[in-house]
## 1
Amino acid sequence: MSISGDDQNDMVIFPNPNNGRTMRFSFGGSVNATNATIEFMAMNGSIVVHRAVRLEYGATSFTLDLDGDLSNGIYLARVRMGERTHIQRVVVQE
């Protein structure tokens, strides 16, 4: 699921399922922001990981190192960039 004003800015997270160490976030269009906030929410709604990343204006993807901060489970990844918010389900399994 993606919440944005433009279908060309859909987000894809890969690999998914993931091992909880490194994730790549890719967007259908260029990113028109220089900062992003990424939150991983457990299925009960609690935020278990919160990261702020610096983006290159106009980029179409970025990589996030999680260093094993997510244990096995299903999460919602919420990415906020400027006025846009994207949400996608992520499965972590080692």
## 2
Amino acid sequence: MICRDVGFDEGKQINGRKRFITVDLLGLVLRVLGTSASVSERAGAKLNVHVLPGLLDER
């Protein structure tokens, strides 16, 4: 899922997008989520981890 919105993070003073990456114990990429910079790290992590149970069942 890629969000086309571009935002501004007040705390880090960043324009653009943030990327949230989920990896397994070997460092292999399981999922990448791109959001606008205005999405907080906590909210982005919740969005990214929300689909992990379904993703892990497929492996």
